[in-house]
Each structure stands twice: as structure tokens, then as C-alpha cells.
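REVIEWER CHECKLIST
Item 1: Sequence provided? yes
Item 2: Single chain? yes
Item 3: Sequence as submitted:
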Amino acid sequence: MPRNHPERDKTRGRIWRVRHESQPARIHEPNLYKASGKELLVHLRAANTWEVNAAWQEIVDRRDVSLAPQLSRIVMDDRQPNDLRIRALWCLEGLGKVETKHLEKFAVAKHRALRKEALRVARANPSRLRLAPKIAMAERGLADPDRLVRQEAIRLLGGMVSDWDVASALPQHRIVNLLINAAVRMPDVGPAKWSEYFATFERYLVRMSLEGKPSALAAWFAANDDGLSGDQRARHAFAALALGGAEGARKLARFLPGDPNSEELLLMASVPNYPAARRILNSSLANPRNLRLIYENRSRLTDPTALAPLLTDAIRSLVTRDPSDANQELLVKMTGGFRLASLEEDVASVAQRAAGILPAGLAGRTSAGETPAALSLAAVRALRELKSSRMDLFKALAVSGNAELQREAVAALAAANSEAAVPALLEVWPLLNSALRRTAVDRLAGSATSAKQLVTAVGSGAISRDELDGYTLDKLSAAIPDDAAVKQLVAELGHSYQPVLRLSGGDGDYVDTDLALRGPFTVECWVKLDSGIGNQDSILAGSGALDANFYDNRFRVWVGGAINDIVIASKPIAPEAWTHVAFTRDEAGRFRLFLNGELDATSATVEQRDFEHLKVGYSIAAGGTSGDLAEFRVWNVCRSPDEIRTMANVAIQGGVCVAPAHTSAISTSTGGTPALLYHGVGESWGKLHGNARIERTADLPPVETEADAKALAAKFAQFRSLANQAGDLARGQHLFAATCGVCHTVKGQGGKIGPVLDGAGANGVEALLRNILTPNAAMEAGYRRFRVETREGEVLDGLFVSQDSSALVLRQPNSEDVRIPRGNVRRAAFTRVSVMPEGLLEGLKAEDVSDLFAYLKTLR
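Item 4: Structure as written out by the authors:
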């Protein structure tokens, strides 16, 4: 409620103070709403902070300009307390009565708070002060010994750069010059311990004022191109950093006064072919610290391929001078991160040596039980990034007996840019476990060439059809869409294409049901909404009665009358992803919301009235639901959280009571039997209205048959038993690092693909099993697998990291981030599959599962 609303309580605030009985109570609470203007000036001098602030706000809210002369006298009177003068200035500011003399008076005051406030008010009220005095105040502020005053002067000048008008009497480059001088010529004031910290922050403020102002910086460069004496080089370098981009990098290379710092080096790395930048880069990259800097910031480089020759020479020279493990590790990282193909031989030598493989014939094996060094794993990953065709090396490692090396070698074989890749894989196929086979199949399906070889191998029987799931079929269809053999496989194995209800966003698109909810009930369904989610998207509604919609991307239940939103979900849902939503009402009339089977919100109020004439997919708001619905169930009982969670992913088979259109439901409150009152599923939804239609798709919610659910329950029971057995904590930690740590982080260590798992053990064994065994059942939106189909015929899947105008960036397990130029993108979209793979536990021995859970349960 606004402060000046007539019904606002002027005697009590939202914060209450509880006093002990021994403390004296405040007897007279001032009612400033009724105070006269003269009385408000008295309250402005009070000792109580609330009282003085309330008086200031009341003066401004009333627009009582008759007080301006008295407030002006307070501002101009040096004998008045500083805090009173500041509050008087605030009042004048709120009344629009600030004059130049007020700010000039404060600008030369002894107390820093007054000087700072003069600059702030000048910035906040640009039309109140003429240009000349404003510049004079800013220059005086830049020379002030107090850091807060200097910072306010920088902000004032930054605002003047943004608001500059071509008709202004002062050239814009003059204002820019003041800012650049302030950044380069910092006054030597303040305690030495913190001086550099504050200087860095002030330079940051200057940079923030100038970045994104290319025309202002161009005018400054044009006006300051008459020599480089004194600190001109430093000033030009600072301006070049603020300018940024290729032009800023070229100017920086011309004017840099000494060795580059980290930011300057990264900027010049964007123009490695510019002669001045190339000379500086050649010199700087001899330092391994700078090479690591370039590697760690590789995703920021707009054209990393242009750096390849410089990086190749620099890292090769470094390893020749000092072949330490640290430098060889850097060689491997740089090769994989920048795809330095000319270093393949160097990396292969590292892989062979670190893994104990004999170079001659490569027939050797790692000794039984030997744990490979991190360097060997990194080297094999780098070779995979290069799509190396060193088949003999990869085959030897694929059967080495070490799980970590096997996984990397199989992935490298499948990714190799060679016709010999699939034959080499088939040689070792009988020796691979199911997890390694899944890795190989997934990789092979990612490019047109290897996808054709995979399909041929399946056709010949060398690889069983059982190795192909619906997701792999989708990937094959994307890689080789016109391949007859793939189409045949999809036709024979394409049972994954099932019907769902499609609503296209029209006002008249819904199912013409006539449902009534009386007493306790449960409404639940799977929903996948299109982008632009809002309150026009609804799963069930009736005019003036009830609307289960998604206003502000959050599932909520609206009821007619005075209550409106009776319960609102705590978090938004993601577009283009299946989410299970449910809401219930109990005997008392309390509502509860569930997301993906988990209780999310409970209503603070209750509502027990009946809701009638409800239609599935109908929306009260203008527009209509745009998305897909599946497994829509309405019950005349309030189902428990366990029932909702257990059955959310289970398809209900025959014997279901389905209410046809225009049939009201009965309620247990009138003696009815608990029943499923409505069940929209498959082709059976009732009478479709408008453009609502049944559509067959492979993008389905993770719903299983009762038989599948029983099999899954048996699997849960098997692994629950293993998870609850005593295990070896140390072995479990090692298994986690090898199996889970490639994607997840614990205590700052590990991959950055899946969520951080610190505290995951606190959720209990059941939650851990659910997330591991059924990762696609209720995944967070940020962890859906993103697929990019390139114009070169590759299909790349991974975690979506970022995008800009020039490229998309994907992250994959045990791989460098992949930067895909937009010009090479044929199609890109999120898939329905989680980045978390299925079958993780099935590939482990029983004792390994117990060991792994012994460690997971310690993550609290």
C-alpha cells in the first residue's frame, strides 16, 4: 500500500519491537500523517531514526513545497548538524527544489558525507545543475582524499557520458578524458593496506562507465593521437581495454607500455594475426603460467583456431626445455582444448608411456590391477578430441583390464575419424561390458559416417538390436535421416511413438469434459508446455470456479471469489520438458501441489466449496494452453504423497472408470466409492474441442506399464539391498571419482556437468536410487541433454553451457567444451533425455554398488 494511502496505518510499521516488562514503554507514538508542515520540520530533528525518516517521506509524499525555503536555510547553514542538513537536501530533492547553490555548498563542506551527497544528487538530477559547475564538482571530487567521494564523482561523470548530447557545449571526449585520467592517475591517499583494493574498484567503476560506449572512446582516441609522452601509453591501453573487441585489441597491442597482465593478454589473443599482438603473444606464451591462462579462458576466445600455430610452438618449446609432468599435462590439455592436430604424435607418446604400452607393436598391456595415472587418461581423451585413428593403441587400452582406461579407449575408438573404427570396435566387442557398449553405440550414432557403419553392423548381427534404444534411434535418424535401413529399424523398433493430447494455444482448444470436484479430490497429469508459459496455460479450469494454470511459469491453483491463488508452487517449470503436476484437496479443504511426485507447496487457507463444469486443458485467461498433456487422472479421493509419487510414472491399465464428456463426478463425501473419475490417455480423452488433437510422438513422459513398473520395483529392491549393506568407504570414494566424478563435483573437485553432490547423502538411499536408476523420470530443466546437428553431418549431445552471436558451447563428460560455430549448426534443441546416463549401477559388481553407496551416504 502506498505511504500516502488514506487507509495506511501511520502509527505502526511492519517491524514490531518487543520490550521486556522492565523496559519503559514509549507512550506517545507520533502520528506524522496528521502532523502540520511546521511540526514535520520539528520531527525532522528527532533523535529517533524512524521518526526522522518518516518525517522526510511525509514531506515528500505531501509535495509540501511551502517548506522549501526553510529546508533551504537548513541546507545552507554550516551550524546545523550534518545529518539534518542531508535530510533537508533529500526533502528538497523529493520536492524538485534543489538549487545549484545547495550542491556547491555541500561540495566544499568539511564532512565527506556532505561532499558525497552533493555528487550523488547532481547525478540523480542532471537537469538541476548547469554543465560548468557540474564538471567543476566532478573534478574536485576526483581529487578528494575520501574514496567514497571519488567513487561518486566517477559515477557522476559516467552518467554524463551516457547522457551526452551532440548539442552540448562540452565535447564528449573531455568527459571521457577525465575518467581515463582518474583511472590511470590514482591519488595516493588512504591506508596503504587497502589502497590497491580501492584503486582497483575505482578503475572498475571507470571501466563500467566507458564499456559499451565505442563512439565516445573513438572520439577520445581521435583527440589524443598526437603523441605518446608521459603516461599517454598507459591511458591509451586503459581506453583500449574499455573499448574491447578486435579494435580494442589492436589498439592495446600498439600502446601497451609493458608486459601484459591477464586481461590484456586475453584481449590480444583475439587478434593473433595482428603483427604487434603476435609479437607480444610470442613473448608471453613462453611462460607456462600464460599458457594455462589461455587454456582456462579458451571459451572466451572468439577464434581459438587462429591461435593454434602460436600455441603449438609455445607448448612444444616448453616441453622440450622442461619435460616435467606438469608441462606434459599442460601439453595434453592444450592439445585437446584447442584441437592442436600437429601435436597428436606428442600426445600419443604421453599416452603410451604413462599407460605402460610398449611403442613397438603396441602389444603390451598394463599390469593387472595397475591404476593409470591421470596423465594417461587425459592423453587418451585428447586423442579422442582429435578424432585420432590410432586403432592399435585404443584396442590395447580397451581390453587393458582397467575400467577408466577402457572407457576412454572405447570412446576414442568410436569417435575416431577412420573407416577402421567400427571393425576395430567389433574385434573387442565380446570383451566389453554393457556400459562400455552403450558408450560405443552412443558415440557411433553421432556422425553420418560412423552411424552408417553402426547400422551395417546391426544389420549383419555383429551388434545386437538390443543395444539400440529409442534415444539412439532418434540420434541415428538425425545423423542419416534418409537412410533406408534406419527407417526400417525405426519402423520395427519404433514402439516408442505413442499418442498424447496436443493443444495449440487457441481459446477453443480443450477437451469438452464437464467434471465436478466435490469434497476431497486429486488431479494429476504429465504436461509439456511450449515456450512462453503463462496463465493462459492451464490443465483444468471452469469459468469463475477454478483454474490450475502456470502464471509466471509456476504451477498454481486459482479459485473464484476472494481467495484467488490458493496455492502456488515454489519453483517454475521449464518449457519443452515433461513435468508431472498434481494438486489435491483434503477433507478440511486444504490444497497441496506436487511437482514430479514431490510435495512442493501447501495452502495457508482452506476452501471446501464445489467446483463444477471443469474442462481439461481449458483456460479462463485469454488465449489457450499450448503444449502436450498425457496420463490425465482425476480421483474423488485425496491421494497421499506416497501414492502420487509411486504412481506418477506408472500407466494405469484396464478396469478404469472414465467419465465421458458432460458427466458429473460423484464424491466420497456423498457415500461414493473411491474411483478414478476421469482418465485421459492415449487416444481416449473425450470430445475434443477446437484444434485440440491427438498426436503421436516419440517425445513421451517417462511412464511405464504396470509390468515395467514391477520390474523397476524389483530392480530398486535389488539395489536397495546392496546400498544398505556395509561397504568399503575408501573403495567407494575411488569408484565415485572414476564413475560419478567425471560429471559431478564434491568439495570443489570433479566435473561440471551434473549438479553438485555436496549434501546428496542427506536425502537418503531412496532419493539416491531414484536419481541414479531413473534419471529421466524427473530431471531438472537445466540438466536436459542438448543436441546440435551440424552441417558436416555430426550429431553432438551434451550439457548446454552458453551461446553468443557466433557459436554454441556444449560440455560433455571427460571432454573439452565444444564450441560449435553458428554457421555450422543445422539444427539445435533440447532433448527429452537427462545428461545423467541410465544403467550406471547395472554395470557395476554387487560389492562395488555397496562400496559406492557407503561413500555417497557420507555426503551430508
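Item 5: Key structural point noted by reviewer: The chain is about 45% helix and 15% strand.
Item 6: Recommendation: ____
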